[in-house]
Amino acid sequence: MRNVIANQHINNHTIKSYNLKALSGASNIHKSKDIKSAKDEESKIVPENEKAIPKSEPIVQIDEQQNKFIEELLKKSDELSSNIIKLQMQIEKQESDFNSRLQNEIKRESENAYEKGYQKSKEDLEVEIKELKEKYFNSINILEKEAGKKTDFLKKIERDLSTTAVEIAREVILKEVAHSSNEIAIKLSKNLIKELKDAKKIKIKVNPVDYKSLNEIYSSIENIIVDSDSSITKGGVVILSDTENLDGNISTRLEKAKNLIENE
C-alpha cells in the first residue's frame, strides 16, 4: 500500500489507526462473546486475588500472639523494674551499712588515735618530768657541793681572819707590853688568883722585868710568893698552887687562842 502523505510530512500530522465499526447484529454477537470471555477471565483472576489476601482467622491468631508477646514483654519489664528497685534498695542499704561501718570505724580509729596520742603524750611527759627531776637533783647536788665548797672557803677565811686577828692582837699586845708590862702582869695575876679561891699556897712566876712591881704588891701576903723566871714573857704570869696551875703567859695564851681558832 502506498502512503498518501509523504514521509517528510508525517511529523506535521497526527495519524491514528482506523477501527472499523461492526454492524449491530454482529456487534451483539461480539458483545456476548466479550462478556463471556470477561467472566471467564474474572473467574480466573479471582482465585489469584483470594490467594494474595489472607483470611480473617490467621489475622486474629497473629493479633493474639502479638498481645501475648506484649503481655510477656510488659511482665518482663515489670519484673525488670522490680528487680531494679530491689537492687537499688539493696545498694542503698549497702551504702547505709557501709557508711555506718565507716562512721563506726572512723569513731573507733579516732578513739584509738586519741588513746594512743594520750598515752604517747603521757609517756613523753613522764619522760620529760623524769629528765627534769634528774636535772633538778643534779643541780641541787651541784649547788650543795658548791655551797659546801663555799662553806669550807668561808670557814677557811674565818680561820685565816681569826688567825690574822690573833697575830694582830699579838703585835698590839707585845707593843703594849713593851711600854707597860708590869701593869699588865699585875692585872693578869690578880684575875688568875681570883680563880684559886681554895688555894692555900700560891707561887707567881713573872719575867725579871716585872718581878719588882709584883713583889712589892704581894710581899705582904703570907701564902703568895713572887718568883722571877726569864722564860716568862714580859707582862705574862704563871701561877702554881696546891690546887691547880694557871698559865697566864701572854705568848702561851695567844698560841692557845690561835690553836683554838685553827681547830674549829
How does this model look, in words?
- The protein has a domain at 153-262: ATP synthase, E subunit, C-terminal (hypothetical protein PF0899 fold, 2-Layer Sandwich), CATH 3.30.2320.30.
- Strands 2-1-3-4 form a 4-stranded mixed beta sheet.
- It has 4 helices and 4 strands, in the order H-H-E-H-E-E-E-H.
- The longest helix has 139 residues, at 56-194.
- Helix 2 packs across helix 3.
- It is of the alpha+beta class.
- The termini are far apart.
Named at the architecture level, the CATH assignment of the domain at 153-262 is: 2-Layer Sandwich
**Total helical elements:** 4
Order of helices and strands: HHEHEEEH
Give the strand order, joined by hyphens, for the main sheet: 2-1-3-4
Strand fraction? 5-15%
Low-confidence stretches: 22-32, 48-53
CATH superfamily of the domain at 153-262: ATP synthase, E subunit, C-terminal
Average pLDDT level: 77
Number of strands: 4
CATH T-level topology of the domain at 153-262: hypothetical protein PF0899 fold
